[in-house]
Amino acid sequence: MTVTFKVTVTYNTTMSINLNSQFTQLENFGHSLKASCYRIQIKRSEDIYEAFQLAKKLGLTVTARDTGISYNDVSLNSGGIVLDMTGMNQIQEWDPATGLVRCESGVTLEQLWKRVEPDGWWPPVVSGTMKTTLGGCLAANIHGKNNFQVGPIGEHVVEFIAMTPTGALMTCTPKKNADLFYAMISGLGMLGVFTSITLKMKHICSGLISVDAWHTPNLNGQLSSLREHAPDHDYIVGWLDTTMRGKNLGRGQIHAANNLKEGEDPNAHATMQLSYQHLPDRLFGVMPKSLLHYFMNPFLNNFGVWGVNTAKYISSLRDHTFRQSHAEFHFLLDYVPDWERSFGRDGLIQYQSFLPKETAETAWREMIELSHQRGLPSYLGVTKRHRPDQFLLTHAMDGFSLAMDFKVTDAKRAKLRELLQAFDAIVLKNGGRFYFAKNSETSADSTRKFLGAETISKFKKLKKRCDPNSLLESDLYRRVFL
Amino acid sequence: MNPSYLEDTVTLASDSPKPVSATPLNPRRRGLIIGASDGLGAELARKLTREGYSLALLARTQDKLDALCAELNTKEQLARAYVHDVAEYNKVPDLLRKIVAELGGLDLVIFVAGVNYPPGGIDKFNFENDRKMIEVNLIGAMAWLHPISEMFQSAKAGQIVGIASVAGDRGRVGNPGYNTSKAGLATYLEALRNRLTRHGVNVLTVKPGFLKTEMLKAAQGATPFAIEPSKAADDILKAMQKRKQVIYTASIWRWVMLAIQHTPSFIFRRLSF
User: Fold this and answer.
1) Which member of A387, A427, A455, B54 has the greatest number of CB atoms within 10 A?
2) Are the beta carbons of B26 and A413 separated by less than 8 Å?
3) Can you give the pTM of this predicted structure?
4) Nearest-angstrom CA–CA distance, A220 and A361
5) pLDDT given for residue B14 in this prediction
6) CA separation for the pair A348, A404 (Å, rounded)
7) CA B273 – CA B269 distance, rounded (Å)
């Protein structure tokens, strides 16, 4: 009798793989969720096709993952195949004359801005960290602090190529295959896998950006500031002290910024050099910042965070205007490397809600009060101004968003879960929406309510067309669409 | 590109049951119990679902598995049944992959399956029975734990529990085949432990004495220190949490076996036990 223990699947002679030795425990960005998946390294688009074939043969599902910077399960596929796209990271073409750049989908924002900035360009939309990749940014259709001015990243995509599970390479532009263009961007990687993305960069006249900072005494002040000052700024973002309740609820600080115009920066050429855009990796020139998260950890409890937020608010009372580099202004999350580790062993989650400008204040007041009543205040709140867009699974609207970070602990899991369910009800009642790159607990029911049955059936029809065998599935897809 | 593969008839992932998505606030651990239909396996299944595990339960008979799943799945689906005979080694890789996909990962594997066919007297020999015991108790375990070790080693996470026996600690007159199968299993588990600890994987060897199960009826002679399987399951869960290496259950067997192991051969070979 022969006993075969080793399962080696060989196909097309180019990729030979023993899936067992690819079994990997992957995490979300906040280290609060683990998933065991079979990871397959992708180097070229042909590999994606072969991985689809393999998945079909073995009855497994597939999802694409780049740097894994999402707060939730969008790039996890428990018990299935995860395509590691970080190997497809070539900037294929860059034209400083037109500002058009063509990249493979695993190119990070860091690679991108470092390439285009010295030529006087900047990515039109960036996330708070530069570690995200273009593939991930398109799949989630990310927004920046300039969402109210320029929309999400999808509006700056000139063309992309994506491979569907049938093996077809689809070229999509706002005109050609428009239905797929508007659905694959925001489509959470469930219709196909991006292989090549062409983006239009934004022209800049200086490596510096002029920032106005002022404080706001309460939630009403914060939201009216965002609303009134957004039109005359390129970027606006608010920090909200979520540890305060009562009359100080929602106090915080606004940072609003404008790109400098031609001639405003006498040293424009110098400030656009990469050396000028460097985020220092040592604190006070001495302590490596990579160690900083260990020192932050003791403050990550209800009392400590109250202290930190209060100190921050007091320091924000001095309203002022200053200039800083683009990298410093945009990539706040990269200031402290591995900052998310400071939340401890069980990590963190983020809850971001989008609300119409009319109902935002009522809804968030109710939510923040509720979080205090339950003894589960959020540790950090960030607000932004938004406008609607026409992508299929859009999260934006004419209103505001509030992102709240929560520390996860074993003892408080169930309580926090109940709190977020109550939040979902408040958001839905007030006509709000959720963001699939952030929220980790949104249920299928909440999703149906905010997206609407029509949108979901449209999305599922497109999915049937692109992926007739339903090979593309992620933990997020199973959570919110099945 | 050639889309011809689309015409093949294969089991599609879309037709299989879906795992429940874990979330940071609703985490799930996923376990596989091989030999779960009754006795110790069933008790472990009951306790692990209470601890929040999602389980895949394997056994030879559908009816018993279905009854157990019905008992465990009253509130939500926590257990799934898979009918399988561990002696069918070549079916293991595909079934394992299917289980991992349907369960949504794998954190814990418990190999409980075991058979005991005594030869029927200390002067009787029965090769067929001995062979069956080796095939199930030892090679069956190797067939499953080999690919699982490969996966856990790669993931740098996971826990393996193997149910060996006090019977493996010494070759005795009563049942040479059973002694050998369990001794082999204990040695195999030790070797896995030595390989996998450096990869962050815990391997626990459990050596039960007498358990009040079906198998007890096969035992000849006295059955001292017999315990309920639920007591043994408690001991195993505790040992898993503490990431222990070897446990006896009931714990008194550690001392009993110490004495037996140190009994000199010139005495031991004259005993009829």
Assistant:
1) A427
2) yes
3) 0.91
4) 7
5) 59
6) 10
7) 9
* Closest CB to B18 among A23, A32, A482: A482
Length reported for chain A: 482
Per residue in A297-337, pLDDT (tens digit) is 888 888 888 888 888 888 888 899 999 999 999 998 888 88
User: In this structure, how many other beta carbons lie within 10 angstroms of the beta carbon of residue A46?
Assistant: 16
CB contact residues (below 8 A), chain A span 310-349, against chain B: 346-347, 349
Chain A with chain B: Cβ pairs closer than 8 A: 155
User: In this structure, are residues B66 and B80 in contact, taking their beta carbons and an 8 Å threshold?
Assistant: no
Q: What residue type is assigned to position A235 of the chain?
A: Y
Helix (H, G, I), strand (E, B) or coil at A12: coil
State the CB neighbour count (10 A cutoff) for residue B181.
30
| Pair of tokens at residue B33 | 């119990």
Q: Measured between CA atoms, how close is B19 to chain A, in angstroms?
A: 8
Closest approach of B179 to chain A, Cα-based (Å) = 23
The DSSP 8-state label assigned to residue B54 in this structure reads E
Asked if residues B140 and B134 have their Cβ atoms less than 8 Å apart, the reply is: no
Residue pLDDT, tens place only, A328-363: 999 988 888 888 888 888 999 999 999 999 999 999
Q: For chain B, give the number of residues.
A: 273
Q: Please provide the average confidence, as pLDDT, over all residues in chain A.
A: 92
Query: In chain B, what residues touch A470 (CB-CB under 8 Å)?
Result: 12-14
From A478, A383, A374, select the one nearest A421 (Cα to Cα).
Answer: A374
Nearest alpha-carbon partner for A138 in A437, A452, A432: A437
Q: Which two tokens stand for residue B38?
A: 């009754």
Nearest-CA neighbor of B35 among B166, B214, B170?
A: B214
Phi, psi dihedral angles at B220 (to 5 degrees): -100, 145
- DSSP-assigned letter for residue A280: P
Of A1-15, A292-306, B71-85, B222-236, where does mean pLDDT reach its minimum?
A: A1-15
Decide: A167 and A469 in contact? Cβ < 8 Å: no
CB B150, CB B195: distance < 8 Å: no
Cα-based distances in Å from A172 to A154, A179, A192, A474: 12, 9, 12, 23
Cβ <8 Å between A24 and B107: no
- Dig out the tokens for A173 from the structure: 């532009």
Amino acid letter, A343: F
Who has greater pLDDT, A457 or B217?
A457
Determine if the peptide bond prior to B59 is cis (ω within 30°). Answer: no
Distance, in Å, from the CA atom of B187 to the CA atom of B164, rounded to the nearest integer, reads 10
pLDDT bracket for residue B9 (50, 70, 90): very low
Closest C-alpha to A187, from A425, A415, A474: A474
**Out of B24, B105, B154, whose CB is closest to A22?**
B154
Nearest CB to B104: which of A79, A420, A441?
A: A79
A108 bridge partner residues:
A133
**What confidence tens digit (pLDDT) does each residue in B127-156 have?**
999 999 999 999 999 999 999 999 999 999
In this structure, are residues A186 and A391 in contact, taking their beta carbons and an 8 Å threshold? yes
- Does A115 have pLDDT greater than 90? yes
List, for residues A185-238, the tens digit of each pLDDT value.
999 999 999 999 999 999 999 999 999 999 999 999 999 999 999 999 999 999
Distance CA B23, CA A22 (A): 23
What are the residues whose beta carbons fall under 8 Å from the beta carbon of A225, sequence distance 6 or more? Answer: A214, A216, A238, A254
State how far the Cα of B103 lies from the Cα of B190, in Å rounded to an integer: 27
Q: Are the C-beta atoms of B18 and A480 separated by less than 8 Å?
A: no
Pairing state between β B202-208 and B159-163: parallel
Q: Minimal CA–CA distance to A403: which of A429, A416, A384, A430?
A: A384
Contact residues, chain B, for A414 at CB < 8 Å: 25
